[in-house]
Design brief:
The structure is a single chain. The chain is of the alpha/beta class and 384 residues long. The protein has one domain: Glycosidases (TIM Barrel, Alpha-Beta Barrel). Helix content is 33%, strand content 21%. The protein has eleven helices and 16 strands. The chain has an eight-stranded parallel barrel with strand order 2-3-6-7-8-9-10-16, surrounded by four helices. Strand 7, helix 6 and strand 8 form a beta-alpha-beta unit.
């Protein structure tokens, strides 16, 4: 079960995604305090400069073809053991696991979430043949990240801090999930966009000299969203670009599907024109939201994993429904006070969405998050 504090942090991160996923929505932020963190000390040495080739793709025994690992997944720190065991069960499909372990809080400081850097998890995933590329996220106050990105000196300081982080363990790279820049206004938009591109370009270059991967997680680009990311430039320097293909409807708005086949069509038509499809990972949700059905209600919208959604549906005796238009399941029930509506994602929904990915040549996916999901999605993903 996700803790209350963890849900608050998760909701903040997902809510930021909703800022540009649906233009009609308004910003909502979690009110609870963040978990205690541990900063990465500046005394940790930076990796040395000797160049090393980026590792070649894994090879199947006795074959020249790469191992068909097309799924990456985030590992939430608030369900670390369950998510780790889930990763081990599906290691034959996992290309990369990204533990959600670090948070950038200033130009020179990267904090560690509880359990970050656990060597048993890193070693176990490596033994299973899975890369470990931890995520660095941020939820800085308004304008703080923009100030870092638009200052060459502070950008360099931040890149140094990121390189110290990757040097603390035997990591295979870093995943940057920087979301507060999505709210950048018109006056500073171009400068912040170019500053982020410069940061990623420098970070990727330095990671590559160490034979490590550089991954960037971004919001979807549609006609009205995603402008803050220079997809083409990021696609040239990063090894993987992860598209957060979820939160079309989110906790700050009305009930509805987290993803939609037509939305995916719009996203991928634009994205594949800018980034080689082989570098893309389409992020898929393994969770949902539980809304009050009445949009005027003051009751809270609650985050649910697939597991929690199905447990609730069975407990309430609610019939399973599937929206053919969006390709997502949902159900309704009465909690004794009001009517509630739950939209989430399962194997049937992902199977409905995969043809859009195939149409655009995208074979790589990223799952948010391990130990949230319908277990039947794994054979669905294995079939591409």
């Amino acid at each position: 079960m996700i803790t209350t504090g963890a849900v608050a942090r998760l909701s903040r991160s997902l809510a930021l995604a909703g800022l540009i996923a649906a233009t009609a929505l308004t910003t909502a932020s979690g009110a609870e305090s963040a978990p205690q963190t541990e900063s990465i000390p500046a005394s940790v040495p930076l990796p040395g400069p000797p160049p090393a080739a980026v590792p070649a793709p894994e090879q199947a025994p006795g074959s020249d073809a790469p191992v068909p690992r097309t799924v990456s997944a985030w590992l939430p720190y608030w369900d670390q053991e369950g998510a780790y065991q889930d990763a081990l069960r599906h290691a034959d499909q996992l290309h990369t696991v990204s533990p959600f372990w670090y948070e950038a809080v200033s130009a020179g400081r990267i904090d560690a979430h509880p359990g970050a850097g656990e060597r048993g998890i890193i070693d176990g995933l490596h033994r299973a043949g899975t890369k470990v590329v931890p995520t660095v996220m941020e939820t800085m106050r308004s304008g703080a990240l923009a100030a870092i990105l638009t200052s060459p000196a502070r950008r360099a300081e931040h890149t140094d801090a990121l390189m110290r982080t990757v040097a603390t363990r035997d990591y295979d790279g870093l995943d940057l999930d920087y979301e507060t820049i999505a709210a950048t206004g018109d006056a500073t938009y171009a400068a912040v966009r170019d500053g982020f591109t410069a940061l990623v370009t420098d970070l990727c270059r330095r990671l590559h000299t160490q034979g490590k991967q550089c991954v960037v997680t971004v919001f979807p680009k549609t006609a009205t969203t995603g402008r803050i990311w220079d997809y083409a430039a990021l696609g040239r320097v990063a090894d993987r670009v992860r598209i957060m293909g979820y939160n079309l409807h989110w906790s700050g708005g009305d009930p509805g599907p987290l993803a939609d086949t037509h939305w995916y069509e719009d996203i991928l038509a634009r994205t594949t024109a800018l980034v080689p499809p082989a570098k893309l990972e389409m992020g898929l949700p393994a969770y949902g939201w539980n809304w009050p059905s009445d949009s005027t209600s003051t009751a809270a919208t609650r985050h649910v994993t697939w597991k929690e959604a199905e447990e609730l549906r069975l407990e309430q005796g609610a019939p399973y429904r599937f929206d053919e238009v969006s390709g997502t399941p949902y159900f309704t029930y009465d909690d004794g006070t009001e009517s509630r509506e739950v939209w989430y994602q399962d194997a049937r929904g992902i199977a409905a969405h995969l043809p859009v990915l195939r149409k655009h040549g995208v074979v790589n996916t990223a799952l948010w998050a391990l130990d949230f999901e319908d277990p039947e999605i794994w054979p669905v993903l294995a079939g591409g």
